[in-house]
Amino acid sequence: MALELGIDVATLKSEIKKTYARVSNSPEEDFVFPTGRAWAEDLGYPDELADVPDSAVESFAGVANPFSLGRLEPGERVLDLGSGAGTDSLVAVRMVGPEGSVTGIDMTPEMLDKARRSAAEMGAENVEFVEGEAEKLPFADESFDVVISNGVVDLIPDKDAVFSELHRVLAPGGRIQLADVTIQRPVSEEGRRNIDLWTG
Q1: What's the rounded mean pLDDT across residues 158-163?
Q2: Residue 141 backbone dihedrals phi, psi, to 5 degrees
């Protein structure tokens, strides 16, 4: 499927998966974006970050701090859109407590494996990680009280589909705590076709 942008979406998704598989498997590499615990701390992550195993946080590749928009409440049902290695999901688990639940969704198997191992290491039982895509969420309507996301929506060409799905899965009165990249000027046609700009 080609977008109006002149880029093949399947190719784009494949390249994004490759990039984030590298972040999962080789977090010590230099990437064009910052990664790791020191970066999350610089972003002002809450104290719950200290409880998250290094196995998850070493592959943290967020762009900002979605928890700066407000703390999660005990008992809330949370969706972490583009959960990666699970850092945000595992911070969320600590905030919502045992009466709440967190579901992370990501399209990169390597990140999901790392997130699942980190959750087990942490002893987090009220979190699950699901493979899937933001444009077609595999969840029932009104399944979540809160959606958190960090540096993911900017990677997805069809933002209308993403926000339509988020609206569908949020319960009435639910909220989105989104940390992402924005631009101040339109991207050139050549820039929109550059897969490297999309992936990192």
Answers
A1: 94
A2: -55, 145
**3 and 9 in contact (C-beta within 8 Å)?**
yes
CA 183, CA 200: separation in Å to the nearest integer? 14
Report helix, strand or coil for 56. Answer: helix
In words, the CATH class of domain 9-182 is alpha beta
Q: Say if residue 107's pLDDT is above 60.
A: yes
Task: With beta carbons less than 8 A apart as the criterion, state whether 16 and 7 touch.
Answer: no
Is residue 132 within 8 A of residue 105, CB to CB? The reply is yes
- CA distance linking residue 27 with residue 55, whole number of Å: 10
How crowded is residue 83: how many other Cβ atoms within 10 Å of its Cβ? Answer: 29
pTM for this structure?
Answer: 0.86
Domain positions in the chain:
9-182
